[in-house]
Write a structure and sequence with these properties.
The chain is α/β, with parallel strands linked by helices. It has helices at 2-15, 19-39, 47-59, 72-90, 101-113, 119-128, 135-141, 155-162, 206-217, 236-244, 261-273, 283-298, and strands at residues 166-175, 181-189, 195-201, 225-228, 248-251, 322-328, 333-339. It is 46% helix and 14% strand. The strands form 2 sheets. The protein has a 5-stranded mixed beta sheet with strand order 3-2-1-4-5, sandwiched between helices. The protein has a two-stranded antiparallel sheet with strand order 6-7. Helix 3 crosses helix 4 and helix 9 runs parallel beside helix 10. The chain is elongated and about 110 Å long.
Amino acid sequence: MINMLTLLFAALKAIFSPKTNLIFENISLRQQLIVYQRSVKRPEIKNIDRVFWVWLSKIWSNWKASLIVVEAATVIGWHRKGFKLYWKRKSRSIGRPTIDWQLIKLIRKFQKENPTWSAQRIQGELAKLGLKVSDNTVTKYMAKVKGENLKRQRWLTFLRNHAKHIVGIDFFVARTIFFQAIYVFVAISHQRRKIVHFGVTSNPRSAWAIQQLRETFAFDDISKYVIRDNDAIFSEDFKIHIRRFGLEDTPTAARSPWQNPVAERVIGTLRRECLDHMIILNEQHLHDVLHEYIYDYYNVSRTHMSLGKDSPIHRPVQNYGRIVSKPILGGLHHCYSRVA
């Protein structure tokens, strides 16, 4: 703004100056512009500069001859852009009225949660909720997604629909007070993060692993898929027994524990919340510790974020009664409930 005021002051001064002074001042200013043009490849042009040249082009017929910093076509482009902005602002109140922002968010929420729904389907659902809006308006405010990805279900939806048929199995090692290795077998259902079976042994063999498979799936009519890694204990006989139970064997890729995430996560939980705080004496002691933690706490009381803060075995909300606690593993954890 200060530069523009200086320019206007110079213009007023030039009107009342002698012609000779104007000629020499014009020459000196043009020479300085040539130096500036050599040193600055692309000078910074601000909006006030654009307005000035657009205005000058309307009142001075020879304005193109004095242009040095920009080209004449650029000034014309600025004028056209200003004309578009002018009509955009002038016609903003004409046409279909905008809808409430909360309704727009609701349309996009329906679209995100139901990727196979069309605009007509969303409009019908809104109508049943007492919200009247046209199909064209719904289409206008739906998020634009390229390709056919909009019509495909998400991986999370697919996994949720099949989670009740998936069981992950895995082994981990616990150490005794004398550093003896004891192996733990864990089988966990993906649907409710429920540990359906566990077993411990200090002498892991294929026959023992097959017996754990029998105890896990002998009376299971729901599970269809078994996710496991490529440990050597999973022998050919073990794989044959998986198929005999009517299950589909689904081994993970080599060195890819992330492909069996639920089993890996529960093993980490067993360590962090139980075994890291205990000194294991022997195989029987480890079995007793895990049995109490899993069946008295983990499956029936421990809340999970993935289950909406519920337990693997549904735990109803209690609103009335006195709150009492039950210690687990000598008070390492507690189960809380209400009693009359």
